[in-house]
Amino acid sequence: MPERFFTDSILEPKIFAPFSNLVAAQSTRHGGVSEPPYETLNLGMTVGDARDKVLQNRKIFCHRLSISPERLAFSSQVHGETVLFATQPGSYEGFDALVTNRKNIFLMISIADCVPILIYDAQHQAAAAIHAGWRGTAANLVFKTLKMMQSLFGTDPTHCFAFIGVAIDKENYQVGEDVAKHFSAAFKQVDVSADGKFLLDLRAANAAQLGDFGIDRSQIEISPYSTYSHHRDFFSHRFSGGKTGRMMAIIGMR
């Protein structure tokens, strides 16, 4: 079994520590009330867990961050490239990235192997939460989200800080040629253990998009943890064979 690193319900990015008005975190799988295979802090409503347990878990998660569940803005995710400007909290449909410059709206995305990216524009007090699977990554969703923030809020890379959260690691993300062909050689390598397979580094590909926008590497934090390798602490869709819970990544300004 892999070593367990966490007992708390949240992981807080260090990159955002200087900003006292900012709420930013990624949940772990600990501290909730759900039963196997969703043990214990499952925050996803669409995975087969009991609704009352998920609602209680969301209250636990929000209480840990001292925010109200009624102030969350989130969307059903479709592995697309559409970005929502959230001006009100609530549930939306069909967006994999959300941005806002409104206080007390906390953007939330769901993950269980895909890459969560949280971005804060400290100059214009604006934030983004992005869910990037291979399709969103190949579609340059992170870069498109930043360009939308630039258009809406005047976002400049000099004042942006970003967190690339816990996601599946390259060593455990095996894909076929149909997926690998969408990525440059910098982000994939041939899997010598299986003919016609590749290992894909989604976190590096998304970090490159932050860099393409002009965000300096010193203003980007990349989590060293893996949903797959550290599945005792984080939900992994691939490790579990598809039956598991969901974590959330969240960002917003008080």
TrEMBL record:
Q: Which SUPFAM superfamilies match?
A: CNF1/YfiH-like putative cysteine hydrolases
Origin superkingdom:
Bacteria
Which InterPro entries does the entry mention?
A: Cu_polyphenol_OxRdtase, Cu_polyphenol_OxRdtase_sf, Cytotoxic_necrot_fac-like_cat
Lineage start: Bacteria, Pseudomonadati, Chlorobiota, Chlorobiia, Chlorobiales
Under Gene3D superfamilies, the record lists: CNF1/YfiH-like putative cysteine hydrolases (3.60.140.10)
Per the record, the similarity remark reads:
Belongs to the purine nucleoside phosphorylase YfiH/LACC1 family.
Q: What is this protein called?
A: Purine nucleoside phosphorylase
Q: Which Pfam families does the record associate with it?
A: Cu-oxidase_4 (PF02578)
The UniProt keyword set, sorted, is: Hydrolase, Metal-binding, Transferase, Zinc
Q: Which GO terms describe its molecular function?
A: copper ion binding; hydrolase activity; S-methyl-5-thioadenosine phosphorylase activity
User: Which source organism does the UniProt entry give?
Assistant: Chloroherpeton thalassium (strain ATCC 35110 / GB-78)
* Keyword Zinc on entry: yes
